[in-house]
Amino acid sequence: MKNDGMLSVRHLSKSYTRGVARRQRIDAVKDVSFSIPAGTAMGIAGNSGCGKSTIARMVMGLIPPDDGAVFLDGRQVSGLKAGEMKTVRRQMQIIFQHPESSLDPRRKIIESVLEAMEIHGVKQGRAQREARVEELFEMLGLHTRLFQRYPHQISGGEAQRIVIARALTLEPKVLILDEPTSMLDVSIQAHILTLLKTLQEALGLTYLLISHDLEVLCWFCDRIGIMNEGALIETGTRTEILEKPEQPFTKELVESFFAF
Q: Residue 242: pLDDT above 60?
């Protein structure tokens, strides 16, 4: 498999040890490979604890893989030093399922959003940076009156859209979405996912969506990977996964979400 995607992972593996004597080995991710073409979305589904979020964190460089490599637009980005990772952080951002944990409770919203731009030198001067944030807030259906509020003064849906706006201030190529709507009610989930679709088309973004909800992935993603016990056991288009699953586990997963 060539490194021809905007985001590619090759033979990623990660294990942990646990127990009093650290003798029990847990294989969280086992030899996982996939590639996501630019401007498309890939989803990874599977039961809780199957290794989905571990993959997201290895892709972002938050935890190192034991084996394998991550490529961004053809460049290997796994194993880079801290200084080199700064550029990668601008090109690839992650959105977590708990947006409130991503916002400093002691800072006003505008200060939290501007912080990433200041660190990475995006735009010159506060006025230009605030103007860019205003544009993104408008795209995401947010009012600028939220600038002066604190995280405890906004709703969960507003918090997640603010976190998305903050990520987009850096003009990334790739967004890693780790259960981005699982903590929101159903109506807000649909709104956030629709916004992400609109942003993908407008900005040419590439997505990796991690979710336990196969129905969401089938609506949102171009391709879907199925994980079981740390292994990526099957990948395919939405039609292939839904209508022609090859693995018994995939068939069971499909039937559990789409049983009539």
A: yes
